[in-house]
Amino acid sequence: MEFKKVLIIGGGQMGSGIAHVMAQAGIQVEIRDVSQEVVDKGIASIGKNIDRMIKKGKMTEEEKQTILSRINGGAEWGAADCDVDLAIEAVTENMALKLDIFKKLDELCPERTILATNTSSLPVTAIGAVTNRPEKVVGMHFFSPVYLMRLVEVVKSLATNDETVAAIMKLASDIGKSPVEVSDFPGFVGNRIMVPMMNEAVYTLYEGVADPKTIDDVAVLGFNHPIGPLRLIDAIGLDTILYVMEVLYEGFGDPKYRPCPLLRKYVEAGWLGKKAGRGFYNDYK
Ligand SMILES: NC(=O)c1ccc[n+]([C@@H]2O[C@H](COP(=O)([O-])OP(=O)(O)OC[C@H]3O[C@@H](n4cnc5c(N)ncnc54)[C@H](O)[C@@H]3O)[C@@H](O)[C@H]2O)c1
Questions:
Q1: Cross-strand pairs, 181
Q2: What own/partner pairs with CB < 8 Å and gap ≥ 24 does 135-140 have?
Q3: Residue 154 in contact with residue 139, Cβ under 8 Å?
C-alpha cells in the first residue's frame, strides 16, 4: 500500500511533529485542528525545528520550503478532506473526543483509508470498536519530539488485521523511523516501563531516600540516561505522568502501579513542572 496523502486531526505538539516527518518523506499532509490559528502555530513550530537542523548543517533552506509546501491546514473537514490513504488522530488525550473523531473519520473516509491513533494510553481496541472498520484501526504511537525520536510503537488491537499492521510498519520505516509491533495493553511497552520508573523516583523522594538532584544524578551517572527521572517528569508534566500511572493502575488493577502520593500532592498544588514554572525543581524562569 502506498501512502501519498495523510490527514492529521490535531495539530498540537505531536500532530505537527507527525506532519513534519511525513512531509519530509514526500507525503502530502493535511492538518485539521480547532482553529486556523492553532494549525498555523503547529506549522510554525515545524519551521523552527527545521531551522535547528539547518543551523547544525543537516538541512538546507530549500529543503525546508519543500517540506512546508507539502503541509496544509485548517479548521473544517469534510468528505473531500478525508479522501486519503491514512488518517492519524493526534488530539487531546480524551476518550470521548477521540471516539467522536473516529466515528466521523469512519463515516467520511473511503474504504481504503487506514485510521490510526497516536494515543499514549487509551485502548486502541475500544477506539476501533466504534467504527465499521476495526480491522483497519491501529495505534501509531510516536515519541516526542517526533522529528528526533526514532521509535514508533505500532499497536495492534484485538481486531486490527495483519495487512494494516504490515502497511503501518512499512510506512514508519519509509519515513525513517524504527517501528516495533506491540499489543494493545495499558501503556503499551514504552510507557509501561518508563512511567513506573519515574513514579518510583518520586517514591524515593517521598521517602526521603535522597534529594531531587541526587536521584537524577544516579540515573544520569549510573545508567547513562541523558536526563534524570524527576527533571524528565518536570519536562513532560506531572499531570501527564499521574494520568498515565492511573491508566496503568486501573487498567491492570494491580497495586504495583499505584501513583506516588507525593506526585498527586504536587499536581494538586498546581506544581505541574516546567510548564507551570515549578515542579520537582523550582529553577524555571
Ligand atoms: N506529548 C507527548 O509526549 C506525547 C507522546 C506520544 C503520544 N502523545 C499523544 O498524542 C496526542 C496529542 O498530544 P499532544 O502532546 O500533541 O497534545 P497537544 O495539546 O499539544 O495537542 C492536541 C491538539 O488537539 C487539538 N484538538 C482538541 N480537540 C480537537 C478537535 N475536536 N478537533 C481537532 N483538534 C482538536 C488541540 O487544539 C491541540 O492542538 C494525545 O493522545 C497524547 O496522549 C503525546
A1: 154
A2: 135/159, 135/160, 135/161, 135/164, 136/160, 136/161, 136/164, 137/102, 137/164, 138/114, 138/164, 138/165, 138/168, 139/184, 139/188, 140/88, 140/116, 140/168, 140/172
A3: yes
The pLDDT tens digits for 247-259 are: 999 999 999 999 9
Distance CA 18, CA 177 (A): 11
Q: Is 141 a catalytic residue?
A: yes
Q: What values do phi and psi take at 271, rounded to 5?
A: -85, 80
Q: Which domains does the chain have, with CATH numbers?
A: 5-183 (3.40.50.720), 191-274 (1.10.1040.10)
Catalytic residue among 45, 118, 157, 191: 191
For residue 140, pLDDT over 90 is answered with yes
Of 121, 141, 157, 199, which one is the catalytic site residue?
141
pTM here is 0.94
| Ligand 1 neighbourhood includes 92 CB (under 6 angstroms) | yes
Mean pLDDT of the chain: 97
The set of residues, in sequence order, having a beta carbon less than 8 Å from that of 53 and lying 6+ positions away, is 59, 147
Alpha-carbon distance of 181 to 109, in angstroms, equals 25
